[in-house]
Design a protein that fits this description.
Length: about 150
């Protein structure tokens, strides 16, 4: 039974996503508290990026790299797509998921007063299954095998 669980793509995906999420949330905490020091960033005195948003961009990028590598080699290693296609599709899906995360975090922080790191964790967990389905059917799609 334990071997069947380990062979499950869903289980391996959530382990890889869990590792990437830990990387993401850890980087978010460090960026928010120590790199940006909870202060907004002025870009050329034209645009201001909030500390939670800047931290999200950095942490999400680190989590994305971690997640792609683990997912490619340990979860969807049977995909017939070239690595560059997988990466492009993975990034497109990740950007879509990032937008969902952004709006959900914004909602939790501004409407419920949640601390940004807690809101980041809640948004990541809540969107996880959608991410698996999209990656399975699009990013790491397996074509029909031909006999012969």
């Amino acid at each position: 039974m334990f071997k069947a669980i380990l062979n499950s793509k869903v289980f391996r995906y959530f382990i890889s996503a869990g590792i990437a999420t830990v990387v993401d949330i850890t980087v978010y905490f460090i960026a928010f508290n120590y790199i940006y020091q909870k202060s907004d960033i002025d870009l050329f005195r034209v645009y201001t990026v909030s500390a939670p948003t800047a931290s999200l961009i950095l942490s999400y990028s680190m989590g994305l790299i971690t997640n792609f590598m683990i997912t490619k080699f340990l979860v969807f290693n049977d995909s017939e797509l070239a690595t560059h296609q997988q990466l492009l599709r993975f990034v497109l899906v990740a950007l879509f998921i990032l937008v969902l995360n952004y709006f959900f975090m914004h909602f939790l922080i501004n409407n419920f007063g949640w601390y940004p790191t807690i809101a980041r964790g809640a948004s990541a967990i809540s969107i996880g299954m959608l991410s698996f389905i999209i990656h399975k059917s699009f990013s790491f799609k397996v074509g029909k095998k031909t006999e012969g």
